[in-house]
Amino acid sequence: MSDQTHMHVEHDIAPGDEEQHSVRERILGYVVGLGLALLLTATSFFIAGTNLVWQPSIPVALIVLAIAQMGVHLVFFLHITTGPDNTNNVLALAFGLLVVFLVVGGTVWIMAHLNQNMPPMDQIMQMPR
Amino acid sequence: MTMTATLGHAHADPHHIGRATEHPGPAPKRIVTAYGFWVFLLSDIVMFSCFFAAYAVLVDQTAGGPKGSEIFEQRNVAIETVCLLLSSFTCGMAGIAADVRNRLWFYLAMAVTCVLGLIFLAIEFKEFADLVARGYGPSRSAFLTAFFSLVGCHGLHVSAGVLWLLTMMAQVFAKGFRADVLRRMMCFALFWHALDIIWVGVFSVVYLLGGGA
User: How many inter-chain contacts (A to B, CB under 8 Å) are there?
Assistant: First the structure.
């Protein structure tokens, strides 16, 4: 029981803050993030304009690269990590992502079906009966 | 013996679940402020997701006007992307300089961030002005309305960010690295990094996906 009283009281860390690091390590983190982000960006722009890869795979590749780059930004620039002190920040991010996916996915899904079920009047007229 | 027990306890319970009943007191103001701003940024990202959704729905409704592949210039977008990415990096450097209270590097990094942001804005403004001059303004088609609102909204955020950046430089000049100024600087850095994350979505979805099709 006595060891509980001597335990160091820890707080969570703020988004954007890092655990204790030296200046050199912090700069190195940004450099690594910048390098990864530049690499992913260059790949995105290369993939978008190339004929080397199977064409239908390009949109999927672009979306995967974009999500990867957002992850790089979150970890290396915003310092949102899976560390125990970061739980609150990650949970807020998770809820934000849930809303984003509901809004974007739901909109695209519903509007695609509306387009299919309710085409404009001139198209209805031309439909075979 | 006591020592190892403590360490073992802390190690087995990294998320402090067993200590939920303890009250270490309110969190420091820096954490509260940054967390609140993080929640605001997430709500801002949710707002941008609405613009993205509108763009995805309206991207094919060109009303006889130009398609994305006819009006986008990859080279300009690449320059904009590199500018914003480098400015995010220098913004991080400014944050470190502020934490170690080094005025010279703080001003230098903030000035570079500002210049890169202004280059980004100039290229974007020129693109918009060219489109409007060619008759492809936001009122031409639903696609162009969605394009101008999404990209323009991001541009407005960058403009606000540049104004905030100049305010932070002025505050550090006038008040020095006080705790409240450092908290604002931290929120600004979060804001600027979040803008770059949104730009990743913009250039991937709007310019690259729309430009190739």
Answer: 148
**Which domains occur in chain B, in start order?**
72-212 (1.20.120.80)
d(CA B43, CA A24): 33
| 3 state DSSP class of B73 | coil
With beta carbons less than 8 A apart as the criterion, state whether B49 and A104 touch.
yes
Q: How far is CA A17 from CA B88, B180, B183, in A?
A: 15, 15, 11
Q: What is the 3-state secondary structure (H, E, C) of A49-74?
A: HCCCCCCCHHHHHHHHHHHHHHHHHH
CB–CB of A73 and B34 under 8 A?
no
Tens of pLDDT along B149-203? Answer: 999 999 999 999 999 999 999 999 999 999 999 999 999 999 999 999 999 999 9
Report d(CA B184, CA B55) in Å as an integer.
Answer: 33
